[in-house]
Amino acid sequence: MSSDTGGSGRDEERLDTGRIPRPRDAVDDSPSAGDGGPGLSHQVLKSLLGAWALSACSAEETAAVEEHLTGCARCAEEALRLRDAVGLLHTDGSLDLDPMLRSRVLEGCLGRRPARIPVPSWAAPYDAETARLDALLRDFGDAEWHAPVRLKWFEDERQAHRRTTVAGVISHLTAVDGLVSAALGLDDPLGNGEKPLSPTGRTETYWSSAYHPPTRTVREPWRDQSHTLVRTVSFAGRGVGELSVPYGAFALPLEDSLLERAFECWVHGGDIADAVDYPYEPPSPPHLHRMIDLAARLLPATLAGRRRAGLAAPARGLVTAGAPGRSLHLEVEGRGGGDWYIALDSPAAMGSPDHTVAQVALDGVEFCRLVAGHVPPVEAAAGQEGDREAISDVLFAAASLSRL
Amino acid sequence: MQQRLARGEAAALGELYDRFAPLVHSQAHRMLDDEEAADLVTREVFGYVWENPDAYDPKQGPMRSWVARLTHRRSVERLRATHGEAEGPDARAHDEELEHRVRKATAAARADYIVASMPASLRSALELAYVQRRDYRQAAADLGVTGDEARRRLRLGLQLLSTASPRPPDGSAPPGYGPTS
Prior knowledge:
CATH architecture of the largest domain in chain B: Orthogonal Bundle
Structural class of chain B: mainly alpha
Largest sheet of chain B: none
CATH class of the largest domain in chain A: Mainly Alpha
Strand content of chain A: 5-15%
CATH superfamily of the largest domain in chain B: RNA polymerase sigma factor, region 2, helix turn helix motif
Oligomer: heterodimer
Order of helices and strands of chain B: HHHHHHHH
Largest sheet of chain A: 4 strands, mixed
Radius of gyration of chain B: 19 Å
Helix content of chain A: 40-55%
Number of domains of chain A: 3
CATH topology of the largest domain in chain B: Rna Polymerase Sigma Factor, Chain: A
Largest interface: A-B, 52 and 53 residues
Strand content of chain B: under 5%
């Protein structure tokens, strides 16, 4: 784009430059040889107009430009225009978009015209959480992408840590979301060869396959994959929710797997937000409720596994499959909370209010922090009543659901 | 994207939002200077696109500029609606005041749009000079370019930006949003 299209005859015209508003005070620049002064050509002076309008030249150059403007109508006209343009700039960076606006806008749209191909309700938390994390990442500069993050989880009965960066966390999410992609027959970010199935193994493989530490370039593949997953499950039709997603040591039906991925996305979004000192809210109450429900459903089998490993107290009795058994009442307070009855003696038993031997009460977000391995089980529950052994076993089992 | 929206794919609506919501919301906010009104315009714009995906004509330019034009139109309507019509002897002054407001808000919103759409090399030069108050030599060093190049970028960036302001003798719409329909 050129602004030098005016009639050439106007060059000789002299303008009253008193009308031209002065720029902000020139930047205090220690003058050095060649910093302007007399003898700058029309070409150079013209090239300085943008910097002049932004008060970004040396004092000598500023003076030389202003001297020139009294004699050159064309430059004076452009100078005026560029100064006006500076007035359109502002420093109040981009406004944070309310993350909850997304669901309100989408609901409004779908109320006006129902979707012919809806996103399954069990995929909604994943859709919402990936969008929320992506919005957090949107304005990150290099400094934020490389900010150190300390990942925390619970392993071998104690807190484990791992240092990475914001970009490293996104790589981790990409690698583990890739499990779901692979199960659906989509491209696996780890490629087509042999690769581990466990989330930790996949992450280590993905991290070490990069030649350089991860940078902001990790965002797009992660986001593309999450968009593709949501799209694919929308088209897949009924029944796809039961498709088994293998995690190595265990497997989850797709419905639960995407819920687990939504949970991880929120937890790691929180890790990232902490690292760069941003606020990060919990998921919407209905989504939080689903996440808590998933953890509560996983607890009986986890307890059984820990019992086999000698990490939990032995079962107190045999329960016929499907029959109500000894239970712990998990009372989750706050928005998204509710009451769950965790069968203690067998994953096949049914949790039952009538067979409650212990009760634990805690806030929903706090429960999720326990499940994420962010708070030690001994510090987790606000209210405890009844069988202490059962309470301890359940809280440790909850923490053991966490991993890298 | 247009086909997917027309097919009624909710996932496409989500992607549309993820792609354009920052643009729509910040443009509406710049026009209306009100968070709630900007939220409302955002809902209206996405509602319109979702209900009328065929209204977009790719021959008229990229979807982004179409969405920006829709946002501008809705924001102007809202600005006019909230400031109402005046009657009586002051009506004329009121109308002029309102039109002045619309023009000013439009220029500010277009300027944002231009800054967001210009090449990153120009945008970062402007940011260094304007936000971080670096002079052009410092900006050149930060960007790893020559002083000549930094001066060129600052001037070009401002020239692009200056097209946001409506200039009275020029009656046609400023070129900010690409082709107008």
